[in-house]
């Protein structure tokens, strides 16, 4: 395949997708049946259900006092970075290179962590922290669903993971994709999503980046290159900065954008690129909270092979070495 023919084929693929699919995220006002949900899964198409979790105890009652009471004495794992940039491509002047940056992992008491999050939100000069809860929040389980019924029935499986995320507007999730059917539930504050389908790989300027991890040196966080690392393939193009790190086909991308309010539920299809920012609304007490449910994707069918084919064609026609 010549470079021109490969690039033309990818252009046609992305343009055809743009022509045949909506440029906005579909909004529902009631939960879909399992059959209706499977139609979205089969099309690999996102949707948002407005108010789907508005009756959850978590949505109605979570505030600073409630969380401090429920998690009193609980030790939690906190992902700490100086710029809210966990798991993201970051230029390091010290190494004169763009690195795949992972956070420093701290064990903290929940009350200390939440105090830090709130103070950072209200003080622009307060040192930033990124957030990540995984298995530390069992006392809060009764306040939310253990799974999403329409997804469990349709996919015939329990979620592989249920994650609680607490942070503030300083935290940004760099654009990436996951091999999970993702149900994302907003509890406190707002989340802002930028979404792109997996076939937009040729737009993302994926590069093999040396991995590094933030390490403590006294009170400071510094980047330390991982020992004997394998390079990490990661997207470096950001739709919010379209002229920076652009690839040859980046101009064809048509990102979808959606904001989740408290009680909203987003279906984020497997392998969709997503960037996430967040903001605190008035009365949110300086923190944002959300819960997401990861259901392992089914690799049968055309989705994964098509995404892999688009990736292979782009790599071949542009002479890139990505794994």
TrEMBL record:
Residues 115-310 form the JmjC domain. It comes from the Eukaryota. Pfam families: Cupin_8. InterPro entries: Cupin_8 (IPR041667), JmjC_dom (IPR003347), RmlC-like_jellyroll (IPR014710). SUPFAM superfamilies: Clavaminate synthase-like (SSF51197). SMART domains: JmjC (SM00558). This is Phospholipase. It comes from Stachybotrys elegans.
